[in-house]
Amino acid sequence: MSTTPYWQETLAPVVPGPPLDGDVTCDVCIVGGGGTGLWTAHALKEAEPSMDVRILEAGTVGLGASVHGGGFVTLAGAKVLRRLLWYYGTTKAAGVYKAVAKSMLEIGRFCRKNGIDAEYERTGILQVVTDTKQLARLQLQVDRARKLGMDGSMTVYDAEEARERIGSPTVLGGMTAFGAVVNPHKLVQGLAGVVRAQGAVIHEQTPALDVRKIDGKFQVSTPHGVVTAREVVLATNAWQHTFSEMTDRVMPVWNHLLVSEPLTGEQLARVPWPGREPVSNMRSFFFTTRLTQDNRVIWTGGRWHYRPGRDMAPENARNPEAYRELRTAFDAFFPAWHDVRMSHANGACIGWSHSFIPQFGRTSSGLLYGHGYTGAGLAASHAGGRILRDLILHRASEYTELAYVTVNQPKFMPGKFGDRGADFFVWRQRTGDRIPLLLPHRAALSSRSFFNRHRRGPAERAGS
Ligand SMILES: Cc1cc2nc3c(=O)[nH]c(=O)nc-3n(C[C@H](O)[C@H](O)[C@H](O)COP(=O)(O)OP(=O)(O)OC[C@H]3O[C@@H](n4cnc5c(N)ncnc54)[C@H](O)[C@@H]3O)c2cc1C
């Protein structure tokens, strides 16, 4: 199996540009050339075309987590919604959902406007349940979405209807929600091209080694030069913890994915999947699956792998245990595809924020940051670019009012305690997924009446 991310093979090889060589001064220096850094540069140059914006990228632009993803353009997961409601209340939670939903649409518009064929499709996403505990979660999710007024694009399906949409014998029901798919590599490379055309400079092979504030300006040291800037944005996602002011805010955890060989027509016909929409289940460590344009199946998610000491060495991407677990889950969900061969297996780190809620803001020294998508950053990083733009321009806006911009975020414990906490969390989630529902819950006890009540779409409900 190849360990190169599959998406990378869908474009001609990307050759990194030359590193920064010498000292430079600019208005804004963005550290990290993934979705967050690029969307920030794009939004800034749109608002202030004359602004001198530079991006420092340790490797090649877009080849961090962005190229490793499954390409699911989604709203935040169920856990995030629960926490948003819990920490911030209904209005703020709805504000985040609306902003990210808007970003999901704007990504499509951006591709069309700039002629980027990023395989963007507004498919919706089908969330399925495969055990009684998830039935209870489905009910809670439906109730919460209604509370936020976000149920407009939501339709609930009982087991039979859900299996017509995705032919897995394990499915007990499901719901569709707002969502899209994209080829994340083509999107990020297209975005990088637009950002360069707007006049922002991207220095690849240029790791930021240290950031200091001297006489009211920031100095970012790199191996071959120093960048002096009025504003510095840390947009390094799972690597954020490598900067001293960020140590306790982001925890890197490994997540892996499998990509199959292209399915034959006969293989495809074995599993009904008429809408080809991406599918996820509702376990704590949920999986997600989708088809690519060349009819490969992507299977990703499952448990996180924490490496002591926050080890992000690239060789951790090769993880036979993770691949075995993913394959077992794939075979259980798609028994009809037991003979499908996987051609690609790899992994990367997601940036886990303690609250699971993405975080944007300023540190006490004045550094700006954006991170903590906890595995769902494609759409949220677009909204994040707008937030960072408005924070840089010191303008109050609908973006700076979002619950993502907070000051008192819960943090991870440092050192050994942080390691143990992360281990414990992974254990707790895995155990929770294995233990069946213990408390009586109305959806799980009487799934028939739940589906009868909810499965009609919003239009039908309004008409009844
Ligand atoms: C296996 C997997 C599957 C995923 N699937 C999805 C999905 O389907 N949908 C979704 O929405 N999200 C998904 N994600 C998450 C998504 O990929 C991230 O949330 C998103 O890429 C974050 O973008 P970013 O720009 O913040 O980070 P990144 O894309 O990781 O970019 C950060 C960049 O910073 C650079 N950098 C780091 N340190 C330095 C330094 N010191 N100096 C200079 N540069 C530095 C890195 O090289 C990197 O290019 C997935 C993640 C993984 C790991």
TrEMBL record:
<feature type="domain" description="FAD dependent oxidoreductase">
    <location>
        <begin position="27"/>
        <end position="391"/>
    </location>
</feature>
<dbReference type="Pfam" id="PF01266">
    <property type="entry name" value="DAO"/>
</dbReference>
<dbReference type="InterPro" id="IPR036188">
    <property type="entry name" value="FAD/NAD-bd_sf"/>
</dbReference>
<protein>
    <submittedName>
        <fullName>FAD-dependent oxidoreductase</fullName>
    </submittedName>
</protein>
<dbReference type="InterPro" id="IPR006076">
    <property type="entry name" value="FAD-dep_OxRdtase"/>
</dbReference>
